[in-house]
TrEMBL record:
InterPro entries: Calcineurin-like_PHP, Metallo-depent_PP-like, Metallophosphoesterase_sf. One of its GO terms (molecular function) is metal ion binding. It comes from Hungatella effluvii. Keywords: Hydrolase, Metal-binding. This is Calcineurin-like phosphoesterase domain-containing protein.
Length: 285
């Protein structure tokens, strides 16, 4: 009896691992529409986050094809496109972004892996500087605590969150004043987008002035269960409601991507990698 139960458990575990391996390659293109009076004409945006060196086909051809099918006006990147390690392989992310930069403007905000490479230079050497230099050579608008305009009616800001905001179990609380200290005041007349890698701080982001906050980091919660959502974040928080999806509060929005790759916990169940499409539409009347 015990032998049969053990064999059944092993078979179930093997089946789940195979399913996870299958899901990690299933790119899902998902669209969200937001209406606003702040823009003069419609804008289609693609949001990419948490690639972690993953490749959808040789040289990410399937991901590039998916972006081409969308035909975006602009691409926004929310960070963690690589894995920060002492011998980090920057090839995958730089090759992908180089191809995307030929298609349309790109705005890039840092995630925890980029900021770790920048902060811990004793361990990572000049990798961060090399990475940023290559991105800028491609024409990427690199937003390290900085705001830049896209068109005359849209502003995009990226903030670098300190390590204390990524602590496991009990991260520090990010206040609106801290966002202002890092990146300056929000644009009030333009549609203000904020690239804030962690989705824990939507309330502060919208109070700072973000009309749309774009986040990732939680990888959809690793395993997603019906009605319960994501099971566990990389910071070991369980069943947080904002592991993925679109959220609205007082006319301000946050979109949390499930990400494109995995890191450390290489599991995805009911949690396909996600390419986010935001159709920003002019509200009339």
């Amino acid at each position: 009896m015990w032998l049969a139960a053990g064999m059944l458990s092993a078979a179930a575990g093997a089946g789940l691992l195979l399913r996870s391996q299958y899901e990690r390659e299933q790119l899902s293109v998902e669209r969200t529409e937001i209406l606003t009076e702040k823009i003069t004409r419609d804008c289609r945006m693609v949001f990419l986050s948490d690639l972690h060196d993953h490749e959808f086909g040789d040289h990410n051809k399937r991901l590039l094809h998916a972006v081409d099918e969308v035909k975006p006006d602009v691409i926004l990147i929310g960070g963690d496109m690589m894995v920060s390690r002492e011998s980090a392989d920057l090839r995958v992310s730089l090759e992908l972004i180089g191809e995307l930069a030929k298609r349309c403007p790109i705005y890039y905000g840092n995630g925890n892996h980029e900021t770790r490479m920048n902060r811990e230079r004793k361990n990572f050497g000049m990798q961060y500087d090399i990475y940023v230099r290559e991105l800028k050579k491609m024409g990427v608008r690199f937003l390290s605590n900085r705001t830049m305009k896209f068109r005359d009616d849209i502003a995009v800001t990226g903030i670098d969150l300190a390590e204390r905001y990524y602590k496991k179990f009990h991260p520090d609380h990010l206040r609106p004043e801290e966002i202002g200290r890092l990146a300056g005041p929000a644009e009030r007349e333009r549609f203000q987008i904020l690239l804030c890698h962690s989705p824990l701080f939507f309330d502060s982001c919208r109070k700072w002035g973000a009309d749309l906050t774009l986040s990732g980091h939680f990888h959809g919660g690793t395993i997603r269960l019906p009605y319960l959502g994501g099971v566990m974040t990389p910071q070991f928080q369980f069943f947080l409601p904002w592991c993925a999806g679109t959220f609205e509060e007082s006319g301000k929005y946050m979109i949390v991507s499930r990400g494109l790759g995995t890191h450390s916990i290489n599991i995805r169940l009911n949690n396909k990698p996600q390419l986010v499409v935001v159709n920003l539409k002019r509200k009339t009347g």
